[in-house]
Amino acid sequence: MSVAVRYDCIVIGAGHNGLVCAALLARAGRSVLVLESAEAVGGAACTREFAPGYRVSAGAHLLHMMPSSIVSELALESHGLKFAARSMPTSILTAGGAPQTLGTGLSQADAAQFDAYNERLARFARALVPLFSSVPPRLGTEDWGDRLALLKLGWSVRKLGRRDMRELLRIGGMNVHDLLEESFESQALKGALALDAVLGANFGPRSPGTVLTLLYRLAGESSAGIPGHTLAQPAGGMGALSEALAKAAAGAGVAIRTRSEVRRILVDDDRAIGVELSNGERIGGRAVISNADPKTTFLKLLGAAQLDTGFVRRVHHVRGKGLAAKLHIALKRPPLFAGATEAQLRGRLVLAPSLEYVEHAYNHSKYGEYSAQPALEVTVPTANDASLAPGGHHVMSVVAQYAPYALRGGWTEAARQGFTNAILDQLEALAPGLRESIAAVQLLTPLDLEASFGMSGGHWHHGDLAFDQFLMVRPVPGAAQYRTPLPGLYLCGAGCHPGGGVMGVAGRNAAAQVLKGAA
Amino acid sequence: MARPPQDDLDAIIVGAGHNGLVTACYLARAGMKVLVLERQPYIGGAAVSRRLYKDFTYSNCSYVCSLLRPEIMRTLELPKFGLQVIPYEGGCTMMQDGGHLALYDNHDALRREIARHSKRDAEAYDRYSRDVMRQCKFIKPLLLREPPDPTSFKLRDLQELLYLGKRFHGMGEARMYDTLRFWTMSAADFLEEYFESEIVKAHFAGSSIIGTALGPRSPGTAYVLLHHYMGDIDDTVGAWGFARGGMGAISNALGASLQASGGTVRSAAPVERILVKNERAVGVVLEGGEELYAKRVISNLDVRRTFLNCMDAGDLPDEFLTRVRNFKIRGSSGKLNIALDGLPSFPAIPAGSPSIRGDMHVTDTLDMMERAYDDWKDGRWSRAPYIDMLIPSQIDPTMAPNGKHYMSVFVQYCPYELAEGPWNSERRQAFGDTVINTIARQSPDFKDLILHAEIRTPWDIENEVGLTEGNIFQGELTMDQLLFNRPVPGYAQYRSPVKNLYMCGSSTHPGGGVMGAPGANAARAVLRDAGRLN
User: Are B163 and B526 in contact (CB under 8 A)?
Assistant: First the structure.
């Protein structure tokens, strides 16, 4: 089979990583086409109307991990990215008390620990940034590049000095529950800090590896600014970020086609030569770069037949069943969280009153149940950006854990109603009267996220973040350097190192690899 | 002051647990004058045989022999001093629906048995055991070596790191990735990459949770599966066995071996404090005030007891003390020792099957095991506990009078501190009843056969054996407490911040199980420092 080469690079999917990758390739002089099945770009970084007149960031609802270097290199602000809020504070919601802004109102002992705790983790996070922003080395090769990368990795840890290095090597494999128990006494504080470690993860606070997921988040934040102070809300929602990315890409010469679903990746003579759209159109390219998750890319678009069985088995074993649901609430009046200040309402609100609360919420998910009392990350986008709702009305965006993808008995209407109520009950207790001010709600379970963003498992990292799916084994050995066993086919999505969370780093690393591949 | 006559002692070892005895044996064989001090009137620590009811012998703490390093058995001539290990075949998991999975030594029989539950799993089993054995072979030589300190530039550390790197590199690229994953993933995830049948997964997962405050779905539990394969009796890898006469036979053989090479054990001699003068350990004070002096002191006690109970905080760096306090050593296991009037029947197991001569289990799904762990997290003993149940008297007649039987029941999970309040006799009994009822569900005549039952909670184990919080490994085997992190980063090489004070217990690398490796490694460290390592 042959098909005329029309582009140097074809990127499948206009998620933020795909757009970053495309823009960087175009700036390096490649002719690039981005194909997106949805009608808008952005994938899970998008703004959607979920009820007449009410718009919300349907997937990720906060921007806090995108490296400032990407924002500036692609000149996103001159391409229209504006912020409705920056360095948003995090406040702890507690039943029967005013929200407590993180770091305030601490006991003497906790106050004494708090800064030291943050500074120590920030140091570790900084040490990890170079690791994230580079292609993970392969092991056991004769290649000096790999060896050098490994040495660099060792050195970035060594640089911490003996005390910090020992501490990093100790807590690195630890669970966040024990780390917090070592450091603090306030249940509310420990619960809130633990939530950062388990958001988007298939973990509870007691799961070993949750310090790693916490450091991942902090490393992302420290590439964007100061960890803990980078939470931002783009004006117009996350969709505005994707539009800015698209403009930057287009400005660099990238052709973007939406409503163009790729049906399969074309292979000839053991190399990727292009793609076929669902309307049958075939487009040739020297390199095909998939922003889709590994399972979709290898098993659906490429097909197991093109790969050897060992590799296919590894792909099947990638764990990526999402546990985070989104609940969008349209409100006729501002939500009245008891005792909340204006500033707190404009920030990020978390409901995770204790380590036990989060652990219990997680327990359910292990057995295919949704949490009876879910842990919540709440934002009120309209408090910063009135354009998202009719005058005087408001929108609340909630990330709720845990809601397992494979719910026992399935996500029936009853189950959806049950989980929605479980969330609303918690919110009603914190913001009395919320319920009757509701104009509309929309629940997006991992199943819905899978359907609307084409992420298998509805997992916002395209695969669990865990030691055994990290670095040179993410998403699977043999594809961890963004190249795949099939020449000409690359990955650039969150399923690759370092992972997801609207970072764009995977896309940037992938672009570097494609350019090396001289496509 | 007038020095007592013992001041010519080369070493005092605090605690006659198996590791303390192993250390003592190696030092004595190297010509050192050693004295082992034991609180109890008997030696062995948690490797003991006790007669608590009539003519029944209980291995009332540790209960099977598989991890004891063959190198140590040979060097210390334990068989010559009376240690006999009788391998046992079989093992099984009984299912709630009356079915069962039996484990056979015979490979074909085992495959047929697994195939009864899933043909696919029978195929996968060969891949599974090959991959697990590969990891065993990788780790085994590391057990008897000092873990290198990755933050140090000392020649020895660099050499050891290089050795590790070489072994790792030697596996080849693909295997290196497998190894990275194996050492960090959860037992459940690992098993699910091979098997589809719940009973098969549940049976193998059992060995991944024993003694640890983690569930089968906690990352870092996969490698604990090795414990079941590390068994090394007569070099038939994977075999498990009973010490004839109970686990005390191991301690007694070690004691005899020690005596033969000139070492001394003083039992009923509880150490109250380790003496430190000018920042050097110089001896110990016994309860009652007797002072004993030696050139060095080696503690077999867990790291918490050693440094928090037996020393003045003033003699230790604050940061070290904080680390010791943060060392996780939570109790999660209980034990029942039961004297039976006869052999109980297990309808789920076909008559004549050898599998009841091995380790028997009743947990037939991973979820059941995970829920048992959830109870522990909430400060409850598992309402449906995972049990590892053996009847050694079927193979070793010395354990019980003719026709009667001794049953050892290891129980996971049981917390050291109950949410409902402190342990007392009622709560202990309630815990015991939970376990007995769990067994009775698979054995109708079990309850009627019970003559005597010793119920041991983590609280009891702490108070009788002296293991902090009753943790059987002297510290949890979690990723953050292994190798160079065990027990304390920077002090993972058996030495302590105080000169001439060493650690030789399971709190040190490679950790618990009646393995003897920490004891042997500690002895090597002592001899190296003394310039006596040839």
Answer: no
Task: Write the residue in A165, A209, A359 that is nearest to B219 by C-beta.
Answer: A209
Does residue A359 sit in helix, strand or coil? helix
Cα distance from B138 to chain A (closest Cα, Å)?
16
Question: Closest Cα partner for B191 from B131, B144, B138, B246?
Answer: B131
The span from the CA of A389 to the CA of A382, in Å, is: 7
Taking an 8 Å cut-off on Cβ atoms, the answer to whether B219 and A207 are in contact is yes
Closest by CA position to A504, among listed A61, A14, A10, A19: A19
pLDDT of B193 > 50? The answer is yes
A208/B219 CB distance under 8 A:
yes
Q: What is the pLDDT of residue B2?
A: 44
CA B51-B57-B62 angle, to 5 degrees, is 100
Kindly tell me if the per-residue pLDDT of B3 is higher than 60.
Answer: no
Say whether B96 sits in a helix, a strand or coil. Answer: coil
Residue B214 with chain A: CB contacts under 8 Å = 208
- ∠ Cα B64 B70 B73 (to 5°): 85
Say yes or no to pLDDT of B398 above 90.
yes
pLDDT at B313: 96
Q: How many beta-carbon pairs under 8 angstroms link A with B?
A: 90
Q: Does residue B112 sit at the A interface (CB-CB below 8 Å)?
A: no
Looking at A166-175, A192-201, B85-94, B382-391, which range is the least confident one? Answer: B85-94
- Chain B touched by A139 (CB under 8 Å): yes
Q: What pairs with residue A83 in β-bridges?
A: A234
SS (H, E, C) B280-348: EEEEEEECCCCEEECCEEEECCCHHHHHHHCCCHHHCCHHHHHHHHHCCCCCCEEEEEEEECCCCCCCC
State the Cα torsion A397-A401-A402-A407 to the nearest 10°. 10
Measured between CB atoms, does B127 come within 8 Å of chain A?
Answer: no
Question: What is the rounded distance in angstroms from the CA atom of residue A500 to the CA atom of residue A496?
Answer: 8
Mean pLDDT for the stretch of residues B411-430: 98
What's the rounded Cα separation, in Å, for the pair A282 and A262?
9
Give the integer Cα–Cα distance in Å for A180 and A355.
9
B-chain residues within 8 Å CB-CB of A120?
none
In the block, residue with structure tokens 């500036």: A72
**Which of A210, A366, A471 has the most B C-beta neighbours within 10 Å, making it the best mutation to test the interface with B?**
A366
How, if at all, do strands B50-53 and B56-58 pair? antiparallel
Tell the residue number behind the tokens 């997921």, with chain if given: A213
Please report the pLDDT score of residue B235 as a whole number. Answer: 59
CA distance B511 to B211: 12
Contacts by residues A175-178 (CB-CB < 8 Å, ≥ 24 positions apart):
A175/A205, A175/A206, A175/A207, A175/A208, A175/A209, A175/A210, A175/A211, A176/A205, A176/A210, A176/A211, A176/A213, A176/A214, A177/A205, A177/A206, A177/A210, A177/A355, A177/A359, A178/A206, A178/B328, A178/B480
Chain A residue with minimal CA distance to B319?
A: A163
What confidence tier does A96 reach under pLDDT thresholds 50, 70, 90?
Answer: confident
**Separation in Å, CA of A350 to nearest CA in chain B:** 23
Asked if residue A145 has pLDDT above 70, the reply is yes
Amino acid code (one letter) for B527: L
Residue of A157, A166, A180, A214 best to disrupt the B interface, most CBs of B under 10 A: A166
CB contact under 8 A, A139 and B371: no
N- to C-terminal Cα separation, chain A: 20
pLDDT band at B1 (very low <50, low <70, confident <90, very high): very low
Interchain proximity A140–B485, CB inside 8 Å: no
Contact residues on chain A for B150, CB-CB shorter than 8 A:
165, 169
The CA distances from residue B66 to A3, B241, B276, B412, B522, in Å, are 63, 6, 38, 19, 21
